[in-house]
């Protein structure tokens, strides 16, 4: 396998990529230096447009407009359709409109209606801003052709955070010449630096779904993600705006009716008020006080069964912790693919050993002050039968230094279990060069952390060099996690190791034919103990191909070695003994185009596994017959046979979304696995009466089902009905 990787690397050096497809009379700007700007037109509040998706307001006649867009997918060059985006602002809000021409308006796709749904599957506009000019992240506002909205937090080193919700509005409609939409983003809904001379970073992208065409105003380097702020445009000239008193009060009332079905049966009815108070100390710095935080609208975690040696990582899904979560990110992309050694993991707050603990009160300060980004959080937790009340805190500060570089520090304090005294301090430095080796992005990240516990002190540190570009890309990283490195508010699942990682790829973009891109490369991962004895090794040869319809195919051949130094157990208590194992295997994945009303994202893997064999399949199917409904079914089958026994893991999940309008939807999730034999049903209705007023209704049911005798043995455990009303008052 290693020889094969070396051969492929040599071949890549000898191959020249085919040229990009462009018309003779159309030339692309230099993507490495291109940074357009737009200055919104100042209007009075009386001139503000009515947000209905119809561009008949007089304001759009005098608004600033951008129309110079460039296609980056599936071809590079002139877009097949024209796009016009208009900008205006008054003292209260920013107004944005789009007129998206289309030669075949009857083929415009608009199957998503849900708030925070997958609007990127449709014809849509992405409007992303980086108000602090960090080059690392910001706020995202997406709207499709019928006005369905998605807002997200963009962060460096991770996928956008969808759970973030701001107060804003948008409407859209399909017309005879294409589609149009209008957006209003109140200034009091976002944090920003009003005195910035450079303006705000700005990305504007249009998606033409049926053509798999992506056109951009800035960030026109092919292969870069649409939310990558490495080379943004600029939104300039916004002055003298009003954010009111800067005080927002969110009042929520929750009625919960629950039944515990175990003997003796127990019914309970509770009424609980809760609230959040937001105050902008400055336009760019916001304080938040939360009381009796309510997490009733949190969706089910994706069910996972651990079939490996180390504990698994479950992403955060609760709104309170996702608000401004990008300000707490540490060391950029360093922990993106491997969270081991992460200094702060918000699920440690409120979830202890799988048990939910009430968050009685919390305070948060987030934003920017005098060029310094700040994220501070302190939470007072309730008590349980086994855990005393705890106060848990984290602080993160970062600032720009030199040119395109960033320096930060982080500190945490407290142990959710109350078992130890625990403090962590750390620092990170991110260096960026957008003109490396003739125009590519190069990023270097260094970090150091020290965890101090009543059980002992230890540290963790690392460095990563990253060249994440289209034609060529590579990455190397080294990390050490001390044996006694125990950040109680962080995530460590493999202490006492040194990790060495490397990967590279070579991507091609044929100028014609049915292939959009294809690439190959290798990944390498070596893990040793602190004594430098090899514990794990992984080398893989990777192939990926995407066609013009954006169907994606991936194949991976892997050589893996594991040195198991202590006994561990697979599900159903199947032991894996101490020894050295070769876990070579092959992996394949297919992901169909998002433009179709049906699709799949399925994978299959076969490998030698700890002296035996493993066959794992993950089959996914989704169907969107109309904008009113979406159905997704997923089945995971993991069959493991080792010398000490066999185990088969099966996970079933179904999700159905019913949309009555862009403001009213019902999402139902059903999950079951044969290991815990736990069945979960969670259905929630969300009605956005207006951007600041919401009604939430949910029903959840948990049960135990004997896999071998289903459906005869169905044992209910708990049922819960929740009604919540919330309103946010802005002063």
What is the radius of gyration? 26 Å
Tell me the total number of β-strands: 44
Rough shape? globular
Question: Can you give the mean pLDDT?
Answer: 89
Question: How would you sum up this structure, described in words?
Answer:
This protein is an all-beta fold and 731 residues long. Among the domains are: 31-235, Immunoglobulin-like; 315-489, no CATH class. The protein is 3% helix and 54% strand.
Which keywords apply here?
8-stranded mixed sheet; mainly beta; disordered N terminus; 44 strands; 54% strand; 24-stranded antiparallel barrel; 3 helices; Immunoglobulin-like; single chain
Quick description:
This protein is mostly beta strands and 731 residues long.
Fold blueprint:
Elements: H1 2-14, E1 37-38, E2 41-42, H2 59-62, E3 64-66, E4 70-73, E5 83-89, E6 93-101, E7 124-130, E8 138-144, E9 149-154, E10 169-175, E11 178-186, E12 200-208, E13 213-216, E14 233-235, E15 247-260, E16 266-282, E17 285-291, H3 319-322, E18 351-352, E19 355-356, E20 359-369, E21 372-381, E22 391-401, E23 405-413, E24 422-436, E25 440-453, E26 456-468, E27 472-481, E28 497-508, E29 515-529, E30 534-547, E31 552-564, E32 568-570, E33 574-576, E34 579-582, E35 585-591, E36 598-599, E37 601-609, E38 612-626, E39 629-642, E40 645-661, E41 664-673, E42 678-690, E43 693-705, E44 714-730
Parallel strand pairs: 1-14, 2-5
Antiparallel strand pairs: 3-5, 4-13, 5-6, 6-11, 7-8, 7-12, 8-9, 10-11, 12-13, 12-14, 15-16, 15-44, 16-17, 17-20, 18-19, 20-21, 21-22, 22-23, 23-24, 24-25, 25-26, 26-27, 27-28, 28-29, 29-30, 30-31, 31-34, 31-35, 32-33, 35-37, 36-38, 37-38, 38-39, 39-40, 40-41, 41-42, 42-43, 43-44
């Amino acid at each position: 396998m290693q020889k094969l990787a070396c051969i492929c690397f040599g071949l890549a050096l000898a191959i020249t990529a085919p040229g990009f497809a462009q018309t003779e009379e159309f030339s692309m700007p230099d993507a490495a230096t291109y940074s357009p700007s737009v200055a919104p037109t100042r209007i009075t509040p009386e001139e503000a447009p009515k947000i209905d998706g119809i561009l008949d307001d007089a304001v759009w006649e005098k608004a600033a407009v951008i129309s110079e867009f460039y296609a980056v997918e599936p071809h590079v060059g002139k877009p097949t359709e024209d796009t016009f985006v208009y900008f205006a602002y008054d003292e209260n809000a920013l107004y944005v409109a789009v007129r998206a021409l289309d030669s075949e308006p009857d083929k415009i796709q608009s199957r998503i209606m849900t708030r925070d749904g997958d609007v990127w599957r449709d014809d849509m506009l992405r409007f992303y801003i980086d108000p602090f000019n960090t080059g690392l992240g910001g706020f995202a506002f997406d709207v499709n052709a019928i006005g369905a909205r998605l807002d997200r937090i963009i962060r460096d080193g991770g996928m956008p955070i969808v759970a973030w919700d701001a107060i804003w509005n948008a409407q859209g409609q399909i017309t005879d010449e294409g589609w149009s939409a209008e957006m209003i983003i109140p200034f009091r809904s976002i944090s920003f630096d009003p005195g910035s001379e450079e303006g705000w970073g700005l990305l504007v992208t249009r998606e033409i779904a049926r053509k798999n065409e992506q056109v951009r105003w800035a960030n026109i380097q092919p292969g870069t993600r649409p939310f990558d702020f490495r080379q943004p445009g600029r939104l300039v000239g916004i002055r003298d705006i009003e954010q009111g008193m800067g005080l927002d009060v969110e009042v929520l009332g929750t009625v919960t009716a629950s039944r515990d079905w175990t003997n003796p049966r127990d019914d309970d009815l509770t009424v609980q008020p809760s609230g959040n108070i937001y105050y902008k100390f400055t336009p760019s710095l916001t304080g938040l006080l939360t009381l009796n935080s309510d997490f009733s609208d949190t969706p089910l975690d994706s069910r996972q069964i651990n079939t490996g040696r180390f504990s698994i990582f479950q992403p955060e899904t609760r709104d309170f912790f996702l608000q401004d979560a990008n300000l707490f990110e540490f060391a950029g992309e360093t922990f993106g693919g491997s969270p081991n050694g992460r200094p702060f993991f918000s699920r440690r707050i409120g979830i202890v050993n799988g048990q939910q603990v009430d968050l009685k009160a919390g305070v948060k300060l987030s934003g920017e002050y005098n060029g310094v980004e700040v994220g501070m959080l302190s939470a007072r937790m309730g008590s349980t039968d086994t855990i005393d009340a705890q106060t848990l805190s984290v602080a993160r500060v970062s600032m720009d230094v030199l040119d395109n570089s960033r320096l930060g520090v982080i500190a945490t304090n407290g142990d959710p279990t109350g078992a130890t005294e625990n403090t962590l301090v750390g620092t990170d430095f991110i260096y960026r060069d957008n003109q490396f080796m003739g125009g590519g992005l190069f990023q270097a990240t260094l970090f150091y952390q020290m965890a101090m516990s009543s059980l002992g002190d230890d540290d963790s540190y690392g460095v990563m060099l990253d060249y994440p570009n289209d034609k060529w890309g590579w990455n190397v990283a080294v990390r050490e996690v001390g044996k006694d490195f125990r950040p109680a508010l962080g995530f460590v699942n493999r202490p006492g190791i040194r990790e060495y990682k490397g990967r590279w790829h070579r991507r091609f973009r044929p100028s014609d034919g049915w292939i959009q891109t294809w690439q190959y490369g290798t990944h390498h991962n070596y893990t040793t103990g602190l004594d430098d004895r090899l514990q794990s090794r992984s080398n893989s040869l990777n192939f990926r191909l995407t066609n013009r319809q954006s169907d994606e195919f991936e194949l991976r051949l892997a050589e893996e070695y594991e040195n198991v130094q202590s006994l561990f157990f697979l599900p159903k208590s199947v032991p894996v003994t101490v020894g050295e194992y070769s876990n070579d295997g092959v992996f394949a994945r297919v992901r169909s185009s998002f433009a179709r009303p049906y699709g799949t994202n399925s994978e299959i893997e076969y490998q030698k596994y700890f002296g035996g064999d493993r066959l794992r399949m993950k089959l996914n199917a989704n169907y969107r017959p109309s904008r009113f409904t979406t159905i997704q079914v997923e089945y995971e089958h993991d069959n493991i046979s080792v010398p000490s026994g066999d185990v088969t893991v099966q996970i079933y999940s179904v999700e159905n979304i019913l949309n009555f309008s862009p403001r009213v939807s019902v999402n139902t999730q059903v999950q079951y696995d044969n290991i815990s034999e736990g069945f979960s049903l969670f259905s929630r209705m969300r009605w956005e009466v207006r951007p600041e007023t919401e009604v939430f209704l949910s029903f959840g049911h948990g049960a135990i089902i004997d896999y071998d005798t289903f459906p005869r043995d169905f044992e209910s455990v708990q049922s819960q009905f929740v009604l919540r009303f919330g309103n946010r008052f802005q002063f």
